Amino acid sequence: MAEDWDQAERLSVADRLAAEALIVDVDGFEGPLDLLLSMSRSQKVDLRRISVLQLAEQYLIFVNKAKDLRIELAADYLVMAAWLAYLKSRLLLPPDPTDEGPSAQEMAAHLAFQLERLAAMREAAARLMARDQLGRDFFARGLPEDVSHLRKVTYEGSLIDLMRAYARLRTRDEFRPFVMDRDHVFTMEQALERLRGMLGYVGEWSDLQGFLPEGWDGTPMQRRSALAAHFAAVLEMTKQGQLLLRQGETFAPLQIRAREGGRG
Amino acid sequence: MSEREQSLFDAPPMGEQERMVEAILFASAEPVTLAELASRMPHGCDAAEAVAHVQKRYEGRGVRLHQVGTAWAFRTAPDLGYLMQKESLEARKLSRAAIETLAIVAYHQPVTRAEIEEIRGVAVSRGTVDQLLELDWIRLGRRRMTPGRPVTFVVTEQFLDHFGLESARDLPGLKDLRAAGLLDNRPLPDPNAIPSEEDEGATDQADMFEE
Amino acid sequence: MSEREQSLFDAPPMGEQERMVEAILFASAEPVTLAELASRMPHGCDAAEAVAHVQKRYEGRGVRLHQVGTAWAFRTAPDLGYLMQKESLEARKLSRAAIETLAIVAYHQPVTRAEIEEIRGVAVSRGTVDQLLELDWIRLGRRRMTPGRPVTFVVTEQFLDHFGLESARDLPGLKDLRAAGLLDNRPLPDPNAIPSEEDEGATDQADMFEE
Question: Where is the composition biased (Acidic residues) (chains B, C) (predicted)?
Fold first, then answer.
């Protein structure tokens, strides 16, 4: 892993030592493809015309030798060995017409392509690293001048803003400090208070409608608000055990009655 | 002449020496002395002469060769310094507290802080006054000859300028405001009009106010 | 012509624009994009044209204008590198795995981890990828729209800057490699024929990496 680039270059020079090199250290190779590539180099032919059969042979011999030497082989080396043994047998036997998969020749061609591609990428990597590099061969500005970021905030105000502000101040007395206009809102608190006061008069079942406050039927909004507030209040009082509440059927009038002994 | 030198000292031609000076000075993190230049250039080079050439070459350019003591460095031409700043302009509306305070100063000047507070109905934060002072829209006027001799505020020329007024007397009067519909009857109830919020909420208010 | 331009667009003369480009690019150690140049130059300037002029002016000088993607930077001439030992950074020694991985990303980008492993015939360790990411030489690209949506890697502007490349298209030998079909993503003839171990490993790692 830690092997550096130059060493890979030296490998091809050390072809005559290849046999030893192969046996000595599996970890010296970055995987079975790497090993195959260095083996194929010793065939000294165009990678596209490489004899995959020979290559498979070499590889299997290597794996066997390694076993004899009790070198632990990584799983992917063994998988590759198995695959190459399979490929080798396929290459040696006449093609089986019933076989649907790729032909042995196709598989061999693909392996050759993989080897060629790996070799090409190695070469490309070498050429890339041989380029002039920043900080080694050419240099950036050593004394950069910082760009200062100026954030300029301008405040705007127009005469009309000013006049509006003043007008607002001068007419403030006429302002009502309300967040929300509540003229038409009857609150649940109000309703609760009202109903509690009337509780003593609700001995019989009576329609809730009858308990709505006077003067709250002017607009639909008033009516809705008063009804909703009283309904909520009634629910609350029922929960507290002060009232009984019933409804004959859906949309029928709600009726209430004070609960005996539950007055509070 | 450079040929003569080259034959005598085996030094690179002067044009080449210029390139070296350019490269060394460009890449160096600090100004480089002539002595150091000479020590880094090949034997026989005349660093001083090369520097002189380079200096001449960059005359009037966007960067210049600048002498710092006995050392040299490239520097941006002074007239282009403004390019070294990235400006971002941000226009903001004044906070409601600020615009109200400003309006009161404009309509009532000279006015004391206590008077401003009385009119606005809330305390005036120091930040608001400082902001208006910083904007050069208000300034301190004479002290009021009353107990405590409080300072007063008046609006400035810049204020008049900004708001397109010739003098503070040109400010529209209440009548004009009414005529312009700004004072008419009861303004719509509107949450922005709540006077209860203090200056602390100035930012929030400003946001609300910008609506 | 610059006068005509000035009257038409209210832009400074081209000579002046060149000076601005010089100043801005000299001041920055990092490449500056044309867009940024334009934003910092006065309205109406033609940054691209000014850059072209400046580039020409510095041809053969000790510093040169380099294009890096859409950005530009002054860099010392590579032939003068020997003068710069002082500025030389102790380059981090890259492992063979890192160098090969980098090359594969550069030539095959966007490329997935599984594809890198396919090409190298060995698992790519996380450290290798991390190192390249840390150097800012590669970055994550888009996810591949294939099952598992694996992430892809591409090279960065810093990579281009470091190796003095205008764009990834200028990689040495790229055309020949492409012509030879060596950059094709040629799948194995039959998935069943792949040594299964490798395949599974690749998927796991891709997943691991996405964490």
Answer: 196-211
What is the edge-to-edge ordering of all strands in the sheet holding B152-155?
B111-112, B152-155, B138-140
| pLDDT at residue A250 greater than cutoff 90 | no
Q: Which ranges of chain B have pLDDT less than 50? A: 1-6, 185-211
Asked if the model's pLDDT at residue A254 lies above 90, the reply is: no
To the question of pTM greater than 0.80 for the whole model, the response is: no
Domain boundaries C93-199, corresponding CATH code: 1.10.10.10
For chain C, give percent helix, strand, coil, nearest 5.
50, 10, 35
Q: Which of A154, A171, A178 minimises the CB distance to B189? A: A178
Residue A86 has which token pair? 């399979």
Equal fold, B10-80 vs B93-199 = yes
pLDDT digit string (tens) for B67-80? 888 889 998 888 88
B47 interfaces chain C, CB cutoff of 8 Å = no
CB atoms A163 and B180 under 8 Å: yes
CA B171 to chain centre: 30
Spell out which residues of chain A touch residue C100, defining contact as CB-CB under 8 Å.
121-122, 125
Weakly modelled stretches of chain C, pLDDT under 50: 1-7, 191-211
3-state secondary structure of C33: strand
Give the domain ranges of chain B: 10-80, 93-199
**CB neighbour list of residue C20: distance below 8 Å, 6 or more residues apart:** B62, B80, B83, C12, C40, C41, C42, C45, C50
Contact between C88 and A138 using a beta-carbon 8 Å cutoff = no
For residue A183, which phi and psi values (nearest 5 degrees)?
-55, -35
